[in-house]
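Human
Can I borrow your eye for a moment on a structure tokenisation matter? Give me a protein, with the fold worked out from its sequence. Write it directly below this note and I will take it from there.

Assistant
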Amino acid sequence: QADARCASGPALNIPMVGGAINVVFNVEGLDTLVLDAPTLAGIFNNSITKWNDPKIAALNSGAALPDATIAQFHRSDESGTTDNFTKYLIAKDAWDFEGGKAWEADGGQGAKGSDGVASAVKSTANSIGYVELSFAEDAGLSSAAIDNGNGPIEATSDNAAITISSATVKGTGNNLPLDIDRAATKGYPIVLVTYEITCEKGLSGTDLDVTKSFLTYTASADGQAVLKANGYVPISGDLLTKVQTAVAAIG
């Protein structure tokens, strides 16, 4: 549909904002938690139902894991957060579902929005869920580190930026859709990217002035610096250079 609106040719996909998807938990006496893809999938497909399950214990030697039922929360509404959370599990061959914006697995409890999941986890003992980093920080929730095969990686903006900055551009020219290697990254692997979509040519007058001014700011060092302070992930490195080049070409 965006392509059809751009009389000059295909629309541009410009990655502008990154995000980490945090696995948040609320277990009394448990301040840190390590999970890997198979264990995470087991919790969310309802095949791992106790906090002291041997698979969780094997990743958390010495942790005070209670003999308590896991209260698992997922998104009840369709969301990009669910889509990208399950994309990670699929990339690691740990998820027996197609994935997408709608939650597919049985069991657990649904909550609307990342704010709803964060609130449910915060108010429920022995619970776990997935939310964007900003919601985890705002709610003061603990987040699990993810072992992607290279040891546990904390769910931070900096660690998510490693994954996003190493993504491969699968478009041509200034069209920059990304192929993110969630399975092999050495950064935090459960990430998402938000794109700005615009015509490269054909904009004029106020449309051109406002669009280019806004995107020039958001792609600048100052614009990207705002993201980390608010729980999001800046675009960085060579990818940011490509983003800035794409924005400069609009008009």
User: Anything to note?
Assistant: The two ends are 20 Å apart (CA to CA). DSSP finds ten helices and eleven strands in the chain. The first helix runs from residue 2 to 5.
